[in-house]
Specification:
Blueprint: H1 2-28, H2 31-38, E1 40-45, E2 48-49, E3 53-55, E4 62-63, H3 65-76, E5 80-85, H4 91-96, E6 102-103, E7 118-119, E8 124-133, E9 148-152, H5 156-164, E10 169-173, H6 176-184, E11 190-194, H7 195-204, E12 209-211, E13 217-221, E14 224-225, H8 230-246, H9 248-257
Parallel strand pairs: 1-5, 1-6, 9-10, 9-11
Antiparallel strand pairs: 2-3, 3-4, 6-14, 7-14, 8-11, 8-12, 8-13
Helix pairs in contact: 3-8, 3-9
């Protein structure tokens, strides 16, 4: 009898706890409601990757293509953007843990990443290239078999360098400036990087470095959203559609990558459903 009387309260306590957890989950299940309630959208961007996200030397603020994109998304959602600098390797963990609402940080879509986070539709696509010294004698991607390559740790250039060139040794660094410095110092023979980020290194070093012919991968890039937040994902996609139709996305692109910039790149591939790449 005594045992039975002890079991009953424990069972009730467990049941009560389960109800509380379910209630708590329901209260926090819709992150979009939380965003609208507090009036701000926390967005993680890079802070050392020009022109995606970097510190303006004059204002000391983090600026860049991804920052402007996230600010525009927040505006279309009727809230302000709360900026949070993150590193390349922290993009997915910070999002999965709910420490940021969105990640706009040169986040390339891969099927492996899609198991961990949700992706918006792809707002641009860009090739992943290899930078080499002009006098290196290396011309095409296959020439790098057995060579050393640098890449930013946790990036898709690292991932695809390993996949496409399995005999190459990929050496990772915390950010792209350090990875490029390794190439300049002769520690590696090539650097894997997206063309958007790599143009600056090629242009600013005069005639010393160049892109190799071909690419490791043609990468769709999107906004990262925590899994299990369909309302927030739908709101982000709605904002991107509005930005694409109005020309706002093209304006942001041209500001950072267009014909009057160092990059002189056109946004040939417009907003594309992420299901195209799944």
């Amino acid at each position: 009898m005594a045992v039975a009387s002890l079991k009953k309260p424990l069972t009730l306590t467990a049941a009560t706890l389960g109800i509380c957890l379910l209630a708590s989950g329901a209260a926090h299940a819709d992150r979009l409601d939380d965003i609208k309630s507090r009036g701000s959208l926390s967005c993680g961007t890079l802070s050392t990757n020009q022109p995606m996200g970097y510190q303006d030397p004059d204002t000391r603020k983090i600026v860049g293509f991804d920052v402007d994109t996230c600010e525009a998304i927040a505006k279309h959602m009727g809230v302000k953007m709360e900026h949070k600098p993150i590193s390349v390797e922290a993009r997915i963990p910070e999002l999965a843990l709910g420490r940021v609402d969105l990640v706009a940080a040169a986040l390339g879509f891969t099927k492996e990443r899609a198991k961990q986070i949700a992706f918006s539709d792809a707002h641009y696509q860009i090739p992943i290239k290899i930078i080499v010294g002009k006098t290196s004698g290396l011309k095409a991607i296959p020439d790098l078999a057995g060579k050393k390559l640098s890449a930013t740790k946790g990036s898709t250039p690292e991932q695809f360098a390993r996949q496409v060139l399995p005999t190459a040794e990929v050496v990772t660094y915390q950010d792209s400036p350090t990875a490029f410095l390794a190439l300049q110092q002769g520690k590696v023979q090539g650097m894997a990087i997206s063309q958007l980020s790599g143009v600056r290194y090629v242009s600013e070093t005069g005639s010393e470095y160049q892109f190799m012919d071909g690419q490791l991968h043609w990468e769709p890039t999107a906004i990262g959203v925590k899994k299990g937040e369909p309302a927030l994902l739908a709101a982000v996609n709605k904002a991107l559609v509005e930005m694409d139709k109005s020309g706002e996305m093209d304006a942001i692109w041209n500001k950072w990558f267009g014909p009057t910039t160092l990059y002189k790149l056109t946004r040939d591939k417009k907003l594309t459903p992420i299901s195209t790449f799944e």
